[in-house]
Amino acid sequence: MRRLRVLAPALLAATLLATIAIDSAAPQRRRVNKLRLGTIAPKNSIYHEALLRLRQQWREISGGTVELAIYPGGVAGDEITMLRKMRAGQMQAALISGSGMSFLDEGISALQVPMMFRSIDEFDFVRSKMAPTLESRLADKGYSVLGWGDAGRAYFFSVNEFRTPEDVRQMKLYTSKGDEEMLKLYDEFGFRAVPLDLTELQANLETGLVEVFAVPPLLAAGYQWFGSAPNMLDLPFVSIVGALLISTEVWNGIPPDLQVDLQQAAASVAAEIETAVRAQEEKAITEMQRYGLNVIEADEDLVSQWSREMEAAYPDIRDRYAPGELMDAAMRWRDEFRSR
Known about the structure:
Radius of gyration: 25 Å
Number of domains: 1
Structural class: alpha/beta
CATH superfamily: Bacterial extracellular solute-binding protein, family 7
Number of helices: 14
CATH architecture: 3-Layer(aba) Sandwich
Strand content: 15-25%
Number of strands: 10
CATH class: Alpha Beta
CATH topology: D-Maltodextrin-Binding Protein, domain 2
């Protein structure tokens, strides 16, 4: 018995060592990364459908170790709320517009100066030139850009018919609650901004607290806001940059051998969204017209009036709305494009 008591610990130790050796030789199972991704884009919209494709692609690329849970339609809050949740670790990613991104870094606003760009081509050229600088600034804040795009061009929709900047100044204008940059911008133009959560817009159009707002046609159609604000000025006010963001800390936790393919898939989906948004913009306007939208034509004189009044405020918004050096850079790249 004494001999057995002496041998038992030795046999146990040998068994444990053998088990450890077998486990270390076996392939290591990767930890599953479950990521929550939010967007204010409506459910079943082209944005949402593209994100569902991205979820499937990431699942296949990662062998199921990177799983996306998609929260569309603002169910996770408006864009600023989603970004705050990302900071707190409650969400990990977001498909977001420049309005939200400027909350992280005001440098994004240099791409969203009203009436700065005459065409989509100008906007694309300037964005491509400024993207590395903006990505670096966002990385310093803890966010990685997986893909750039745009959320469309914002047009003014209103309860009552209007035409000029002065008409808009007489109305109460919606802006996203917590978006201090846009609030400052509207103030410089003399607009009477009313900060609200996105989910409050429809109700406040009906009560009269808000009378006008500026959004891309796809959002106005998707959320049916045009039913309460059936007048649209056919003049793009601003091009809205968009991007797919992820927490850098979370991104760095994904194995490096997966990151390249995952980012390529994300960039491809962001590009698909941009192409689809641009193709669908005119269709969305036409469809809303079928249901009563009044499209107000902007002739050359009216376009010139809007441009003059917006550009007159540029010196005042420099450094207040966007960093002066970045706003200057955007204008230089724009002018270079025009000179070609």
